[in-house]
UniProtKB/TrEMBL annotation:
Keywords annotated in UniProt: Guanine-nucleotide releasing factor
GO molecular function: guanyl-nucleotide exchange factor activity
Organism phylogeny: Eukaryota, Viridiplantae, Streptophyta, Embryophyta, Tracheophyta
Coiled coil segments of this chain: none
Protein name (Swiss-Prot/TrEMBL): PRONE domain-containing protein
Parts of the chain that traverse the membrane: none
Domain spans labelled PRONE: 56-428
UniProt KW Ribosomal protein keyword: no
Highest taxon, organism lineage: Eukaryota
Amino acid sequence: MEMDECSPSGTSSGYCRTNSTFSDSCSSDTNSPVSLPPTLTSHFQPTLSRFHNPQNQYHKPTHLEIEMMKERFSKLLLGEDMSGGGKGVSTAVTVSNAITNLYVSVFGQHQRLEPLYPDKKRMWKREMTCLLSVCDYIVEFVPASQNLQNRPSMEMMISQPRSDIDINLPALIKLDALLIEVLDSFQETEFWYEEEESMSRNSGSRSFQGPPQPQRKWWLPLPCVPAGGLSDTAKKHLRQKRDSANQIHKAAMAINSSILSDMTIPLSYIASLPKSGRTSVGDTIYRYMISTSRFSPEYLLDCLNISSEHEALELADRIEASMFTWRQKACSNYPKSSWETVKEHMEGDKNVVLAERAELLLFGLKKRFPELAQTTLDTSKIQYNKDVGQAILESYSRVLEGLAFNIVGWTEDVLFVDKSMTNQQEQC
């Protein structure tokens, strides 16, 4: 079930498979059941062409790869309901889960700065290409005039890629390629990795692993550097790739936030909202939000002294719920208007002011905790989303955001170890 544009839904402040043979059959204009009449079809570049790298040699799939693709393609058609009884999840959720699972299969065990194994890289490109090909058939119709010889111009409807897909999908494909390039650039490095057990056995080797980092994940391999430290060239390369991955992370996060904000808010989430925003956000935060004339979200967050991501996520859920409660009350007199329109008509209204301040507080909290998990609202949107295009864009941007974040962390781990070794040498 979906909401109207207003109510409180106006605006809102943990990866697909198959081979090119399926793509070829799907793109046939003559045999495809979804093909359009020639007069209504516009010429736009398919996703497959944008994603395909013509420099790569054709890789003939093995029998195991073909069987794996058949299995995943069947799960997509069945909606993950292996009984075949039609009780599976929606197509949008199935595609989203497929992209997430593919990401885990390819990158789940990749935990260091080094190129992907060739078979993993082929698997990622091949199966993502097939899943993204769905976007080639998600179009919108727009009027256009056609000049005919010796006749007056005729107006007709032509198809073009849907605007959100046409804007965001090429950007995500580019970000994907850039991240693979970042990993490929660490083909030959001055540092290496060791597991903790091998480190304890080789503690007398002429290398340095550095002191333990605060909040370090114990299951990740530790980077090691030579006794003399990394060269200036190696450190410069690491910093450049870290900065590049950081920019990619910001871009993927921005796309993901934009797609999530455009998704329809499920009625189940609206039904679960508290009757009072004050009850949800708490008396302490509410008193500050309503009593001060110059609201400062940063000052309020400093006063709250949030010590963990778990506390931050719980607070984000409460703030978001109160924000939509206040929006819902403000929209009661304008049920068919967007939130932006309501704000213009009711400027200065208490519920509008509180909703705007809650949005600012939520934005400041997410900025302070950039790796914060998805809120209850975000997960509800993904779970109940029916739009396949939005599902592809959201899941694709989410997994790229996670990969970029990991690469930034890996480069900082190596630079931390090198800096620790340099400091130790200076003290000797």
